[in-house]
């Protein structure tokens, strides 16, 4: 099969012919229909993720068609269109039994700890536990965004922070996950203020329904959020993994507010100095979140397939496998609005 292989940190991904993946006895092999290019892939590309060893095939936001099925798989057949979360759980440990697959101690991560989906085919172990059927109403390119960004935002808002209708949500960082959070927050009945440093991203968010936007370059973004929301956000979501935005998200919360850390603190930002006096005096709740288990996908799919939310504006660019390196390099600076999705695996 053809795959984009990372041979050196920050190097151009080499388009190579590599062996097709072997089907796990309890898993499946998918023909990849689409794969998103995410900031987490950029962490892989730069060498900031300690789980990655070279050479390596990145890519964790994917959907596909089943082309091979392991002998122990009971739920899936060749030809099924499916999607997998980027955290593949074992399905048999106590955390999995409790429904908390994202903290499975035996988890595997395509594009990080095992070969990913910047390739024509990808293997998914533990298929019965880690796959969800993809509705016909959801296109493969949109489904790719569900592999990480949309589902992570949904889990943050509904599974962690418990965002309620009528509350204010502040989103710091309007990339794919931040834009997803804005759209989902609006669908849940919240009012949303988006914070970024890229004018085009703020304009895009406003055009898609954000109640307010804040350009952090104008100074004191947290103060501006508190002014807009009349005392602070009920929920603040950080979507970049940077010290400045994490601190601002905490300071933007009203008392008894909830802050959710979605952005991955990696490399030089794995440890941060934060205003814990704000957490203490404001009696804030701080949540971490990472991915969403497959068993929660159908409810989100029903919201989309039922026409209650339009997530199609997330997708900005359809690219070929050979363009992945250029897209990853965009994350070195303020990336353009929207999500890039690989849909051509032949070039």
From TrEMBL:
- Which InterPro entries does the annotation name? ADH-like_C, ADH-like_N, ADH_Zn_CS, ER, GroES-like_sf, NAD(P)-bd_dom_sf, Zn_alcohol_dh
Which residue range or ranges hold the Enoyl reductase (ER) domain?
11-342
Chain segments annotated as coiled-coil in the UniProt record: none
Q: What is this protein called?
A: Alcohol dehydrogenase
Superkingdom of source:
Bacteria
Q: What PANTHER family does the record point to?
A: ALCOHOL DEHYDROGENASE-RELATED (PTHR43401:SF5), L-THREONINE 3-DEHYDROGENASE (PTHR43401)
Instruction: Enumerate the Gene3D superfamilies for this protein.
Output: Medium-chain alcohol dehydrogenases, catalytic domain
Cofactor(s) for this protein? Zn(2+)
> Any idea which UniProt keywords this protein has?
Metal-binding, Oxidoreductase, Zinc
User: Is the keyword Zinc in the record?
Assistant: yes
Provide the species name. Answer: Pseudoponticoccus marisrubri
Extract the SUPFAM superfamilies matched here: GroES-like, NAD(P)-binding Rossmann-fold domains
GO MF term list: oxidoreductase activity, acting on the CH-OH group of donors, NAD or NADP as acceptor; zinc ion binding
Q: What's the family?
A: Belongs to the zinc-containing alcohol dehydrogenase family.
Say yes or no: keyword Metal-binding present.
yes
């Amino acid at each position: 099969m053809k795959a984009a292989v990372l041979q050196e940190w920050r190097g151009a991904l080499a388009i190579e012919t590599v062996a097709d993946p072997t089907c796990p006895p309890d898993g499946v092999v998918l023909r990849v229909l689409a794969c998103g290019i995410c900031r987490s892939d950029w962490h892989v590309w730069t060498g900031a993720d300690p789980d990655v060893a070279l050479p390596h095939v990145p890519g964790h936001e994917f959907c596909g068609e089943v082309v091979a099925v392991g002998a122990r798989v009971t739920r899936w057949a060749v030809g099924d269109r499916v999607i997998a979360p980027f955290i593949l759980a074992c399905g048999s440990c106590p955390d999995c039994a409790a429904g908390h697959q994202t903290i499975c101690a035996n988890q595997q991560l395509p594009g990080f700890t095992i070969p990913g989906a910047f390739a024509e085919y990808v293997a998914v172990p533990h298929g019965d536990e880690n796959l969800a059927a993809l509705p016909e109403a959801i296109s493969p390119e949109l489904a790719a965004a569900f592999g990480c960004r949309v589902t992570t935002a949904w889990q943050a808002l509904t599974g962690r922070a418990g965002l309620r209708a009528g509350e204010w949500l502040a989103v710091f960082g309007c990339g794919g996950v931040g834009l997803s959070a804005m759209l989902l927050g609006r669908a849940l009945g919240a009012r949303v203020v988006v914070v970024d440093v890229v004018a085009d991203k703020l304009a895009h968010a406003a055009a898609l329904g954000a109640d307010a936007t804040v350009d952090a370059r104008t100074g004191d973004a947290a103060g501006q959020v508190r002014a807009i929301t009349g005392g602070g956000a009920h929920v603040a979501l950080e979507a970049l993994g940077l010290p400045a935005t994490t601190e601002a998200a905490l300071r933007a919360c009203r008392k008894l507010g909830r802050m959710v850390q979605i952005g991955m603190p990696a490399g030089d930002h794995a440890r941060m100095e934060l205003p814990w006096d704000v957490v203490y005096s404001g009696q804030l709740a701080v949540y971490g979140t990472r991915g969403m288990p497959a068993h929660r996908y159908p409810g989100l799919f029903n919201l989309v397939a039922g026409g209650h939310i339009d997530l199609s504006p997330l997708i900005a660019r359809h690219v070929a496998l050979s363009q992945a390196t250029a897209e990853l390099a965009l994350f070195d600076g303020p990336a353009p609005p929207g999500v890039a999705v690989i849909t051509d695996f032949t070039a």
